[in-house]
Q: What sequence folds into this?
């Protein structure tokens, strides 16, 4: 059964011809198949809206529908008991005026073609261009400016913020494809590929590093030079440091950026015995610790 034409067009039963025409044109533009390619439901809706408009635009057929003599599809309805439509004022149809002429469809299609013409002649933004940029690990940690050579020979200066990671995308506005018909240029989208570090491991904003130390440095302690992202730093080792001991260097990790504070650098000591030394060998053979301990205590029964 066809849907009530008034409901289809979204107008009340006493709507004027002008209101019906305006409602139809608005809905027809929205659901026209040319403006909804690949959407069969839009075509079905457009057909239903057109049928409703055809019925309500004909004063005689509209009056008969209001009296209940025909249904929404224009078919004759059998007589029934008293109803509003059956006993409506016979002269009510006269208030609907004359049926609109054929310009309704002509105006509709003119509007559609005009919208297409405007779309085809309006300024259009240029396309975005996509690039991939390799960045040294230290530049990603400290921040830097990296050059990017484009296919047309231009060289862009890409600002690398401290803390950037592989996969992040930087946008350079206006450095993409040229606009069409005076439209603005597109953007250059640059995906960053950070090189793997050889010395440090990154965890969030912190860096970790294994620091080799000699037996003498581990036992006696003292100052050693340590490479950090911002340069070499003199660090004092505590005496009696075992392998695995961690030393924290505050603010020596990933550089600060914006409101974010700098990360830390954690040093993990690794005691290196080194080549055989006759004097050390002789000393250890006759050496007896003042407080002997078993470095393997607790291993028995361990999983």
A:
């Amino acid at each position: 059964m066809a849907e009530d034409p008034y409901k289809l067009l979204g107008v009340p039963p006493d709507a004027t011809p002008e209101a019906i025409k305006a409602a139809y044109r608005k809905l027809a533009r929205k659901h026209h198949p040319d403006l909804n390619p690949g959407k069969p439901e839009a075509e079905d809706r457009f057909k239903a809206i057109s049928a409703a408009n055809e019925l309500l635009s004909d004063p005689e057929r509209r009056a008969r529908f209001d009296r209940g003599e025909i249904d929404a599809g224009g078919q004759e309805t059998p007589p029934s008991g008293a109803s509003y439509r059956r006993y409506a004022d016979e002269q009510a149809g006269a208030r609907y005026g004359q049926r609109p002429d054929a310009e309704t469809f002509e105006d509709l299609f003119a509007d559609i073609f005009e919208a297409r013409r405007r779309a085809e002649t309006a300024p259009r933004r240029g396309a975005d261009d996509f690039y991939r940029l390799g960045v040294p690990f230290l530049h990603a940690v400290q921040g830097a400016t990296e050059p990017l050579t484009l296919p047309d020979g231009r060289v862009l200066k890409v600002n690398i913020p401290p803390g950037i990671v592989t996969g992040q995308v930087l946008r350079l506005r206006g450095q993409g494809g040229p606009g069409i018909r005076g439209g603005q240029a597109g953007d250059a989208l640059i995906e960053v590929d950070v090189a793997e570090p050889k010395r440090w491991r990154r965890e969030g904003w912190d860096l970790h590093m294994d620091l080799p130390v000699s037996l003498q440095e581990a036992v006696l302690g003292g100052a050693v030079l340590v490479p950090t992202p911002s340069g070499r730093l003199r660090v004092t080792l505590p005496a009696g440091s075992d392998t695995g001991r961690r030393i924290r260097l505050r603010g020596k990790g990933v550089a600060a950026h914006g409101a974010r504070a700098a990360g830390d650098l954690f040093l993990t000591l690794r005691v290196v015995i080194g080549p055989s030394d006759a004097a050390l060998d002789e000393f250890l053979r006759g050496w007896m610790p003042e407080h002997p301990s078993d470095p393997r205590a607790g291993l028995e029964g361990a999983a």
In short: The longest strand covers residues 206-214. The chain has three domains: 5-121, 129-194, 201-286. The helical segments are 5-9, 17-31, 40-57, 59-66, 103-121, 137-142, 215-220, 278-286.
